[in-house]
């Protein structure tokens, strides 16, 4: 009995510690100067917009697209954008590839149009990946598009074209820079420290340059921040974040940039999120509300297994449009954004598999996007037939698996009335089968795409609002 009591007390303590850690910085056990500076999600208009867009396009484009995942007839099994680190690829040769970078078929207006048609509300472009090659003519290095046969800026026209279509642009920026002589993974000697000090000045200069050159961008998407050299200077990344957000009010920066003074990343040593949203969901998505602790979050996804840049030989499972739509809807149902990656070819065109998915997802979003844009978690749990999302009193049932009975079971919280149900604007008649519990008949004819049923609900005063609120974890 005593043992059971002690075990229960321990569990209670753990739960308490965990929930405190996620929600109340006042009860921190470790005093931190460079930990999280805010508790809870940002509530300003820029962040509200980011949150409402829900669907983004990621584009990884750089010199690696020239190699396309192979060199000298051998195929690289890693991610295409990492090919410079492959033993079969001499770095000196890779670093000369810029002399071949000439994307004559790069038409930013077309890129923007297809992203718009896909339904993306924002896009993230690799201004500079780990190889250090800059797609903008940076004045702080010669390793840029200006030195290539193409010569012209890639980023400026892209920002303009996407903005014209109403799509927000975010700039991916890698801290890892394989090309820069002062970049280090760790600092072992005074010479390393001196070099890295110069490198940090270079980083700050480039970031300032990007914001000044492209003032309409909405945020930075940082990457390559896991090395000791970076993690061990939490003061720098903290000051950098504050500097950038002062320079460009409203700027959105996820949790990848910073480390606290103890080297903790994403979440500080007291387990509070650093940055404006949780940015660690890469090629995986949360399963339940508790996984995201009420934080804003974003998941980034590749179409094949692990390829971000262009790889001519996609290996492994290639996700279908329906699978990707399911990931998008699942993300919405868990209060997060979903960003789908594309890796254009070196000439500036997209491979047919990507074009097809953009079109198919776009066709689905044109009809069903209201279940995604501005929508979030419904607080109704995860049904077997798919996902619930919600915007105000509109509850969307996004159906992926119809049971053989052809009836979808729905249970609403107490004191919540189901005013009407419809599918594609056509009324559907729910059957009341229990207290606040319904069958929604949809038949069981074979379907080739997920579909949406809209439930208009209304809540009486004193209704169990808690069921509709974010999970308290
Ligand atoms: O190493 C990179 C990878 O190439 C790609 O850019 C992804 C995108 O999220 N980020 C890094 C790994 O986290």
UniProtKB/TrEMBL annotation:
Residues 1-21 form the signal peptide. It holds the Pfam family Alpha_L_fucos. One of its GO terms (cellular component) is lysosome. One of its GO terms (biological process) is fucose metabolic process. Keywords: Glycosidase, Hydrolase, Signal. Its EC number is 3.2.1.51. Residues 46-369 form the Glycoside hydrolase family 29 N-terminal domain. Residues 23-43 are annotated as: Disordered. It is an enzyme of class 3 (hydrolase). One of its GO terms (molecular function) is alpha-L-fucosidase activity. Belongs to the glycosyl hydrolase 29 family. Alpha-L-fucosidase is responsible for hydrolyzing the alpha-1,6-linked fucose joined to the reducing-end N-acetylglucosamine of the carbohydrate moieties of glycoproteins. PANTHER family: ALPHA-L-FUCOSIDASE, ALPHA-L-FUCOSIDASE-RELATED. This is alpha-L-fucosidase.
């Amino acid at each position: 009995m005593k043992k059971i009591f002690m075990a229960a007390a321990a569990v209670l303590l753990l739960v308490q510690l965990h929930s405190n850690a996620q929600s109340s910085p006042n009860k921190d056990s470790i005093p931190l100067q460079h930990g999280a500076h805010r508790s809870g999600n940002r509530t300003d208009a820029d962040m509200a917009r980011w949150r409402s867009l829900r669907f983004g396009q990621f584009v990884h484009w750089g010199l690696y697209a020239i190699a396309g995942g192979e060199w000298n007839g051998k195929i690289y099994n890693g991610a295409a954008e990492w090919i410079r680190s492959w033993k079969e690829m001499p770095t000196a040769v890779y670093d000369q590839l810029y002399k071949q970078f000439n994307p004559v078929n790069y038409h930013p207006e077309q890129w923007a149009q297809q992203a718009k048609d896909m339904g993306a509300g924002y896009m993230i472009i690799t201004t500079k990946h780990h190889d250090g090659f800059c797609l903008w003519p940076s004045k702080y290095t010669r390793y840029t598009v200006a030195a290539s046969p193409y010569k012209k800026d890639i980023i400026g026209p892209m920002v303009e074209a996407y903005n014209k279509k109403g799509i927000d642009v975010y700039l991916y920026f890698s801290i890892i820079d394989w090309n820069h002589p002062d970049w280090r993974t760790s600092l072992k000697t005074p010479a390393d420290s001196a070099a890295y000090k110069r490198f940090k000045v270079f980083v700050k200069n480039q970031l300032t340059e990007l914001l000044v050159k492209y003032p309409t961008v909405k945020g930075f998407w940082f990457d390559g921040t896991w090395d000791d050299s970076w993690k061990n200077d939490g003061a720098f990344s903290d000051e950098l974040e504050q500097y950038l957000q002062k320079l460009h009010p409203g700027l959105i920066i996820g949790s990848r940039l910073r480390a606290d003074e103890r080297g903790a990343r994403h979440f500080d040593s007291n387990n509070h999120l650093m940055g404006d949203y949780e940015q660690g969901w890469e090629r995986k998505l949360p399963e339940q509300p508790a996984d995201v602790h009420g934080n804003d979050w974003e998941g980034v996804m590749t179409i094949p297994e692990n390829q971000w840049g262009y790889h001519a030989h996609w290996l492994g499972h290639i996700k279908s449009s329906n699978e990707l739509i399911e990931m998008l809807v699942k993300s919405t149902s868990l209060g997060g954004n979903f960003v789908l990656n594309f890796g254009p070819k070196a000439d500036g065109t997209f491979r047919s598999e990507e074009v097809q998915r953009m079109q198919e997802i776009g066709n689905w979003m044109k009809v069903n996007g209201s279940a995604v844009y501005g929508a979030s978690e419904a607080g109704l749990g995860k049904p077997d037939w798919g996902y619930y999302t919600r915007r105000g009193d509109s509850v969307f049932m996004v159906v992926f698996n119809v049971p053989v009975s052809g009836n979808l079971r729905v249970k609403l919280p107490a004191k919540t009335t189901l005013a009407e149900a419809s599918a594609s604007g056509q009324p559907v008649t729910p059957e009341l089968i229990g207290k606040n519990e319904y069958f929604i008949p949809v038949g069981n004819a074979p379907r080739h795409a997920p579909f949406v049923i809209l439930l208009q609900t209304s809540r009486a005063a004193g209704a169990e609002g808690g069921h509709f609120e974010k999970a308290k974890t």
